[in-house]
Design brief:
The protein has four helices and ten strands; from the N terminus they run E-E-E-E-H-E-E-H-E-E-E-E-H-H. By secondary structure, the chain is of the alpha+beta class. The N and C termini lie far apart (50 Å).
Length: 180
């Protein structure tokens, strides 16, 4: 969409008419898979063409995610996508929050959750071949996640948001799920 708009300025006056292009995109739901007993996360590795065109590594590590269709609840989408993309089930789900992907130019929001998993049998290649999905699942100890965050291993905003949230809220999540 090309918008021509004015807005109230901070000083109380009105701006001139400005033109802005906004890309309308469906909303998404994401699930960070966390095993509190092993203190590990499962992340997906898939080829992302936007990363490639940005001259970054096209193989990005990220949480499970999928598009929310009209009439669907974001948490239901995240649970379904966990089965399809990671081949596992979540035992419990907690909300992380919702964020705007790029509010200056897009309408997309992402609803983020953390899902409790048993990572002992998680891994392998998943996804729907007919959708061009080629997804490898990695299980990383939280200590590797900390090191990866400090070393710039993760570049995708969704991944950064979910992993940093987990590091901040780890003790609360573990108490909720393990009773520690």
């Amino acid at each position: 969409h090309v918008l021509h708009l004015r807005h109230r300025r901070h000083d109380g006056g009105w701006s001139d008419v400005i033109e802005r292009e906004v890309y309308e995109r469906a909303n998404a739901a994401a699930m960070l898979l966390y095993d509190p007993e092993r203190d590990a996360v499962a992340l997906l590795e898939q080829c992302r063409p936007g990363a490639y065109l940005s001259e970054r590594l096209c193989w990005q590590l990220e949480p499970v995610a999928g598009i929310v269709q009209p009439g669907e609840l974001p948490q239901d989408v995240a649970i379904r996508e966990t089965r399809e993309e990671a081949g596992c089930q979540v035992a419990s789900v907690l909300p992380i929050g919702t964020y705007l992907v790029s509010p200056g130019c897009a309408t997309e929001t992402v609803h983020c959750f953390v899902g409790r998993i048993d990572s002992r049998h998680v891994g392998g290649i998943h996804g729907h071949a007919e959708e061009g999905e080629d997804i490898r699942v990695h299980v990383l100890p939280l200590s590797d996640v900390r090191d990866g965050l400090a070393g710039g291993r993760f570049e995708y905003a969704l991944t950064l948001i979910c992993l940093q949230w987990l590091l901040i809220n780890r003790d609360r999540v573990r108490r909720a799920w393990l009773g520690d």
